[in-house]
Amino acid sequence: MPLTKPQKLNRLKIKGPPKTQTSNSSFQGNTSKEVYDIIVFCHFRWDFVYHRPQQIMSRMAHDFKILFIEEPLPKAEKSNSIKVINNNLHVLQPNITDLKELSQVLSGIIGKEAEPIAWFYSPSFCGVLEEFNFSTVVYDCMDELPLFNGSSPELNDQELLLLKKSSVVFTGGKSLFEAKFPLHNNVFCFPCSVDMEHFSIATNTIGIPEDLLSITTPIIGFFGILDERIDMQLIEETARFLPEYSFVFVGPVVKIRDEDLPKLPNIHYLGIKPYSELPHFLKSFDIAMMPFALNGSTKYVSPTITLEYMAAGKPIISTKVSDVERDYSGCIRLISSSSEFASDIQKILSKEITPKVYLYDAILNKTSWDRTVNKMKAILKENVKG
Fold it and tell me: What structural domains and CATH numbers belong to the chain?
């Protein structure tokens, strides 16, 4: 089958990215005791890839005052850093070398007599449970972290402790729900959702980022984190099959070496981009891809980008990760090899097969981050002690 003739992108540059959802300022030094409704313990940094924790907590902050605690960030100065996202949402970067020191830092900010809700994204923070009398403990499990390369051998035991202490457990996908349901009597499944208003603008006449103007089309694109969950061999083999097609990756490289990334003239790594600019990159994708490796780290994955791609109306090709195959096999292309990947790309772009993007609306109409957070609030209300 002949390849689609490549051509240069010749489109308008972005005059200015959309405004970000938050306005940030920061200050250093000791703070007076604050009264927070929710303390969040998260392995993600707020200013990293905008993901489930940020989507949920930015909305929770409409009704609760929140302290979002990141993993330690040791610095030369002795003070801790609190970044003010808005009046109801603060981010703490604890200046410590070990999470065992976090209780002391936290007691200096909220006092040990405080009884806020504790909301965990990682069991690694569970040491604070022995030091504080939280009114309610929530475990929002978005990944099976013990299965990731380089994870602490203590994580399994820490998670068992966290599950024991938790009043409510949320899971970020159906496979995770099935894994946690036998371990707790109050588990709720909330797969990752979508901000339709944000990503659907990719269907409009918005500008294309300068990074893409020199890249030939068609573009097979991905945005997200490049780590052990991405099948690098699949990408390299497919790019070799289709040398006149561009494979574009938008996002940070994490926990893998630069030499592990396939290097070919038609593979482009553009690095991390602001959340506000992602729809502009997505607009340029002729096909959106989810080239996940099938390993322990993806066994329970429920990719947020699936619905974000759908919101932009893009044809999607994915490997057969469990939750994707279970929920979306009727409307996206599922592949098992580089030859299948290359073949589906060609067939979609030559219009030999028609992607079932018309099925997206029925899926998208059933979910939103606003709806997810409202349901979580209702469950929280029923489970808050006191």
Answer: 33-193+367-383 (3.40.50.2000), 195-364 (3.40.50.2000)
